[in-house]
Amino acid sequence: MPRAAFLLMIVTGVLAGCSHENTSSFQGYVEGEYVYVASSVGGRLDRLAVERGQTIADKAALFELESDQEAAAKRQADEQLKAAESQLADLKTGKRKPEVDVVQAQLAQAVAAAEQALLQLKRDEAQFQAGGISRGQLEDSKSNQEVKAARVRELTEQLEVAKLPARDDQIRAQGAQVEAARAAVSQSSWKLDQKRVAATQGGFVADTMYRVGEWVPAGSPVVRMLPPKNVKVRFFVPEPVAGGLKAGRAVNIHCDGCSADVSASITYVANDPEYTSPIIYSNETRAKLVFLVEARPSVENAPKLRPGQPVSVTLQ
Q1: Which of 266, 257, 279, 280 is nearest to 314 (CA)?
Q2: With respect to CATH, is domain 3-34+226-315 assigned 3.40.50.2300?
Q3: Which pTM was predicted?
Q4: How far apart are CA 299 and CA 58, in angstroms?
Q5: What is the Cα–Cα distance from 57 to 34, expressed in whole angstroms?
Q6: Distance between alpha carbon 85 and the CA centroid of its chain, in Å?
Q7: Exposed, middle or buried by CB within 10 Å (0-12, 13-18, 19+), for 6?
Q8: What SS3 state is found at 313?
Q9: Domain ranges within the chain, ordered by starting residue
Q10: Number of H-type helices and E-type strands within the chain
Q11: Which of 11, 213, 223, 293 has its C-alpha lying 20 to 30 A from 279's C-alpha?
């Protein structure tokens, strides 16, 4: 039955019952607010994990798109992050231990040579006082000792420098490279995750739009779901009744084939009339106005109702 004709039938029934001022039962229908699940990236549908008519829990896998390119990009980003982190650690630790060991060995040799030059200088000074050597030979001995001492100081400074990390500017620059690599990893991980879509909430799988092997454009829904909390009942009440209705009021829903009435609560009462009389309002005609009211059953009772199903709503 077309929706417009169905609504007209409801309105006609409501208006016909307006003569009974105390009526509290109204005709309505069940409506579902469907959730269309899609991926933000496109790809070939490799796996469809659900079937039409199936009821699934939240976090359940829905479908997977081909992801070879995204997986390769994720591996590349991971390796680039490792390289950037290694370079940063290297800059913070100074030279490698073998390089430091070489400088330490050179320093030990220089210290031994300086000590030997100092002993030779002392002997030459004693020989010069005794008149055994010339002043020129003594000056050569002093110069040799000073050269050896300078070499010790040079290598000592080199050893200290070898233990220092890189300059602050270099470390900051490499730190920025690490953060950029981490952002690339996050981006590649997100793209890879978009190829595997799971349900954010449980519900009834109303339909699947693609078959395995078909190309799915980005943003195109693959699964149409109806979560229990998205089931509602819409019915119409006359103007005298609408004024006394508020959100939260309990109602009972009766449907053909239901073993028992389904309890629900009003969630919405329209401010404007759904249909109006073609004549000027008056105290006699304003009762012909009807207002849309929506009520939602509990999550446990929602599966008992099906979208499009006609129901009878009784106010409590």
Answers
A1: 266
A2: no
A3: 0.64
A4: 14
A5: 16
A6: 24
A7: middle
A8: strand
A9: 3-34+226-315
A10: 6, 14
A11: 293
